[in-house]
Design a protein that fits this description.
Layout lengths: L2 H14 L7 E7 L3 H11 L9 E8 L5 H5 L8 E7 L4 H9 L6 E5 L3 E3 L3 H12 L4 E8 L8 H6 L17 E2 L8 E5 H4 L16 H10 L4 E12 L5 H21 L9 H13 L4 H8 L1 H13 L11 H52 L5 H13 L1
Parallel strand pairs: 1-2, 1-4, 2-3, 6-9
Antiparallel strand pairs: 4-8, 5-9, 6-8, 7-9
Helix pairs in contact: 9-13, 10-13, 11-13, 12-13, 13-14
Length: about 400
């Protein structure tokens, strides 16, 4: 049966037949987030309407924090809970384990730190009904919890920075490409997933780009992603500057994996920029400043992170964005350069990118802070800012 025929057959079943098995299979990998998982499980109990059938498939990916005890023997009157435990192998392998078990015609991917709104599944089903095409995935809104303690970093990465999610720039009902297959809150017809029986690529050891890579392959079968803002879920995951800096470095390393398994995606990953930068470092004399930054790169990174962290608890909207945007870009490029070029060449490229991005960003931070009447720590700002003149 061809892809279009399978999609049509599925839609006839969804709209014209009473389904004995669950309509939705909710896939949730988990690893060492016992408290967040307990909150998520409680929220899934409150899905409305009460007669919408779904199952929750939880894969414990080698947790050591009591998650196994939380899940052991747990039952639900609202949904069918299915639990499996495996040695730690990463979220891609965990999702694949779940995909081998699902029975629903629609599969919703979510996380163990995601609290679903009470009508999340209803909204996802309405999205699938609206488009009438089993090749359409529905992307819901993942937002910070109401009343949560939101840092400037958290506002930035889900706001103007869009380093985590691009919701600030999405428009309800609009189609978006494979890069927006966010496995915190996205649903897709199982028949489409079955066209890529290998599932998520397990070469990704950490969470970053494994979902986009899978969606890229699904797009070869006609995948479209439509955004539905009413399908809401809250993300219980606190970030500060330091933790998100580390997250971006990890994303850079996973981008190198993505390039290895899907070289056609090179243009999306800033790899060409780094290749040119590496060539420059090999063929040009480096200044004393470049050599000094390369030698003490970790100290310079910590200095930039410490400067941005000063503003994590302040409400000075727009001031710290001037630094966070290039800082997190640098963190991503730093991880990518290390993974692509190895320790020695990668370090030279990282130092060059630091000098390109951070000194001008500090100058812009100072300008915005002066306009807003916000103080700037002189020691860190002046030290980084002087690099621009010295270089």
């Amino acid at each position: 049966m061809q892809s279009g025929e399978r999609c049509s057959a599925l839609l006839r079943r969804l709209t014209g037949e009473r389904v004995a098995r669950p309509l939705f299979s909710v896939v949730m990998p988990t690893c060492n987030r016992r408290e967040a998982l307990a909150l998520a499980l409680g929220s899934w109990e409150r899905q409305l309407p009460a007669d919408l059938p779904f199952e929750l498939v939880v894969v414990d990916d080698g947790s050591s924090d009591g998650t196994a005890e939380l899940l052991e023997g747990r039952r639900s009157d609202r949904f069918r809970l299915r639990v499996v435990r495996q040695d730690n192998a990463g979220p891609a392998a965990a999702r694949n384990r779940a995909l081998g078990m699902v029975e629903g015609d629609l599969v919703l991917f979510t996380g163990d730190d995601i609290e679903p709104g009470p009508r999340l599944l209803v909204e996802h089903r309405a999205g699938h009904d609206r488009y009438g095409d089993a090749c359409v995935a529905i992307l819901g809104l993942t937002h910070w919890p109401e009343g949560a303690d939101i840092t400037a970093t958290m506002r930035h990465v889900d706001g103007v920075g869009a380093q985590q999610f691009s919701y600030q720039y999405l428009r309800d009902g609009t189609e978006y490409d494979f890069r927006h297959f966010y496995t915190s809150n996205v649903s897709v017809c199982r028949s489409l997933l079955e066209l890529e029986p290998s599932g998520f690529c397990t070469e990704f050891p950490a969470a970053a780009f494994e979902d986009a890579e899978f969606a890229y392959r699904l797009s070869m079968h006609g995948l479209e992603i439509r955004y539905r803002a009413a399908a809401r879920a809250a993300h219980h995951h606190r970030y500060d500057v330091g933790s998100f800096f580390a997250r971006q470095q990890r994303c850079g390393k996973m981008a190198a994996v993505l390039y290895r398994v899907q070289p056609a995606l090179k243009k999306w990953l800033d790899i060409r920029r780094l290749e040119w930068r590496r060539l420059e470092r090999l063929t040009a004399d480096r200044s004393d400043v470049e050599l000094a930054v390369e030698r003490d790169l970790e100290r310079w990174e910590l200095q930039a992170v410490a400067l941005a962290a000063v503003y994590d608890r302040t409400p000075a909207a727009g001031v710290v964005d001037a630094l966070l945007l290039p800082l997190f870009e640098y963190a991503y490029l730093s991880g990518l350069a290390s993974a692509m070029f190895g320790p020695r060449s990668g370090r030279a490229v990282r130092a060059a990118e630091y000098l390109r991005l951070l000194p001008p960003a500090v100058r812009e931070l100072e300008r915005r802070a002066a306009s807003a009447g916000v103080p700037v720590p002189r020691c860190d700002a002046e030290a980084i800012g002087r690099l621009a003149k010295a270089g």
